[in-house]
Amino acid sequence: MPRTLGASGPTVSPLGLGLAALGRPGYITLGHGEDLRGDRSVEALERQAHEVLDAAYLAGLRYFDAARSYGRAEAFLASWLKARGMRPEDVVAGSKWGYTYTAAWRVDAERHEVKDHSLPTLRRQWGESQTLLGPWLRLYQIHSATFESGVLEDTGVREELGRLRDSGVRVGLTLSGPRQAEVLRRALELQVGGSPLFSCVQATWNLLESSAGPVLAEAHAAGWGVIIKEAVANGRLTARNEDPALRPLREVAGALGATVDAVAIAAVLAQPWVSVVLSGATTVEQLQSNLRALEVKLGDEARETLRRLAEPPETYWAKRSALPWN
């Protein structure tokens, strides 16, 4: 069933495709290196990205998520949109500003991205994103807004985002870390020119990290679009993770005749405040497995079993930070 990205937003699909792992040769998802078929060249990754984008569109996905820091994700998405003759009304593309990719196409880079939430970075990266994605770019987000970066209190940044909003681009923010809920509460208060600055949030919510749920419900009630990332926790909620603590998840999946990742995504789709859940698939096979989530129906007993998998936010984010680039 189609959904809208917020109360007055464009029509989107319940599942979207995130390009974080398809736009660069290294990422922190478990087994990412194995998914690249031994060829990490720009040309090979572009072909693979197009294959997954083709499969996603054929399956009905209509929201595609990129960022300036995802290597060449925006360029790969743009070349696919143009090669397939997509019209601006055919899909919704979202991107983000605030991080710059610095790995130079190396997996062993000392730093893969550098964070900078300054006004000059916003202006530069908006121009870069718009040049690539043009009329398809309908949502532009602060990438991982935090209190530490000061981005929400920067008057110049807020005014510039207000101008983007007034030009017809939806303005949002993405969240990361154990203080997601606090940052979102602050963002819900912000106005520019007498109107709310933001109308969309992208946050982490999954079976292991569900702490932001109540505030995400508030955002939904306020008319915001709610996009969920990391539904399978960078591969921790897939068959690749043999952690004994996830045995209940494997048992629920087995009882339902579903894949582990499909059950994890289905648990997110079941939240009434969700607009879009992102698949981070790197291969067509992973995407097809993720898509099975649309068919999974979780009963009360299964939901209660899965609810008990949640970790303290600090534990979850510490484990995420320790995931190796591969």
Automatic annotation (TrEMBL):
NADP-dependent oxidoreductase domain mapped to chain residues: 46-309
Signal sequence range: none
Domain of life: Bacteria
InterPro entries listed in its UniProt record: AKR2_Oxidoreductase, NAD(P)_OxRdtase_dom_sf, NADP_OxRdtase_dom
Transmembrane segments: none
Pfam families the UniProt entry points to: Aldo_ket_red
Name of the protein in question: Aryl-alcohol dehydrogenase-like predicted oxidoreductase
